[in-house]
Amino acid sequence: MKCLTIILVLVVLVILVQAATADDIFETIKNQSLDSLRAEAKPLVQVFGAAMGGGLYYSASTHGLLGFDVGVRGMVVIVPDGESQLLDDAEVNYIPLPVIQANVGLPLGLGVIARGVAYKFQGQTVSVFGAGVKYDAKEMIPIPMFPHVGAMIAYQQFKGGDILTANVFSVHFMASQSFVMIEPYIGYGYDRTTMNFKYTYTVAGPTAYTTYIDEKFTEAISRLTVGLKFSPFPLLNVYADYSLSTFNSVSAGLSVSF
């Protein structure tokens, strides 16, 4: 089991490296006319929603009061050929999203999460910041060995330079059961994404001219997630999951609990 989880983490890291070699997706977007953007926006917005809504949890339980964990997570959305002409043109088959995430326990089964990252990607500053609230209903179910059952809401914002801004609202429900060093989990989620495209488009021709495009699109997806957390040592958590959705995705990560 340990080897399987570590292999999944390594696979995600390899995909992240491969995705960085793709053609410039931002330049590909800027080469879209308004009509082309309107035709291609739906799958792109759904892909970003699938990425940002992933990896939000690895258990239905929350920490005790002021208990916390912090770690790194990587989400990768799989984009089959033919699903998006824009992403095909950019030779993108994977959309990667690494983040740093912290979870802090509160009273009454509540917990808060915060995640974020900022880095350079294909000449643009890419950033993700978000927060959420999670609830574990275990204390309300006085049945021995009953699984943890939880729910969470989260809000995140993605920015890709001055070209893209995406706001994602997520509602997820999950259940998990701990068995010594492993904890399988399953979840169902809803992610609603609003993406704003802003760029200057050059219309080619004998009398070439530029036009400024400022368009918003909103799409929603649902997902079914199955995953596994493995704790090979006290305080250390390794986890990976797979989500079935409009665009399937893989999430994996490593965190330390206190």
Can you put this structure into words, describing what you see?
- With 258 residues, this protein is α+β, with helices and mostly antiparallel strands.
- It contains four helices and ten strands.
- It has a ten-stranded antiparallel barrel.
SSE arrangement, N to C: HHHEHEEEEEEEEE
Radius of gyration over C-alpha positions, nearest whole angstrom: 20 Å
Q: What is the helix fraction of residues, given as a range?
A: 10-25%
Give the C-level CATH assignment: Mainly Beta
Shape: elongated
Low-confidence stretches: 1-5
- Overall pLDDT metric: 89
Which CATH-level-2 architecture? Answer: Beta Barrel
Q: Under CATH, the topology is which?
A: Porin
Within the largest sheet, what's the order of strands? Answer: 1-2-3-4-5-6-7-8-9-10
Q: Total number of β-strand segments?
A: 10
Major sheet characteristics:
10 strands, antiparallel, barrel
Number of domains: 1
Task: Reconstruct the topology from this structure.
Elements: H1 2-19, H2 25-30, H3 34-52, E1 68-78, H4 85-89, E2 94-105, E3 110-121, E4 124-136, E5 148-160, E6 164-176, E7 182-203, E8 209-230, E9 236-244, E10 249-257
Short description:
The protein has 258 residues and is of the alpha+beta class.
Descriptive terms for the model:
alpha+beta, Porin, 4 helices, 258 residues, 53% strand, ten-stranded antiparallel beta barrel, 19% helix, single chain, elongated
